[in-house]
């Protein structure tokens, strides 16, 4: 497993970045663009996933990092729920729904696996830099 030097190296963060781009692209068209409440909330949830992973990594303490990863995972759940709403009211077709949902689910699973690793490796973070080896 590769050593993580920066938060940008974390696979879940990379997936969250792709997901955020997708959410912004989908929410800027048609009726979705006029529904400022839902589109804004979905954008915020996707950004929250990325931001919490980055903020937790930069906290430099393992317990805080795990807490922030939990927040990121919760935001992924929020976004999945909003994706259902978007499909149910006709903003997303089945293909768009599946694309967002699957990427969101992938990110959530990556975060969960990373959290599990950190919980099993209580000294995964070193004082002289970070060496996660995941």
Walk me through this protein's architecture.
This protein has a single domain, classed as Up-down Bundle (de novo design (two linked rop proteins)), CATH 1.20.1440.60. 74% of the residues lie in helices and 0% in strands.
Molecular shape: elongated
Radius of gyration: 16 Å
Tally of helical runs? 5
Q: Which range does the strand content fall in?
A: under 5%
Distance between the amino and carboxyl termini: 5 Å
Count all strands and give the number. 0
- Secondary structure class reads mainly alpha
Which descriptors would you attach to this protein?
mainly alpha; de novo design (two linked rop proteins); 134 residues
Quick summary:
With about 130 residues, the protein is mostly helical. The chain is built from 5 helices and no strands.
Topology:
Layout (H helix, E strand, L loop, with lengths): L10 H17 L2 H5 L1 H23 L3 H27 L5 H27 L14
Helix pairs in contact: 1-3, 1-5, 3-4, 4-5
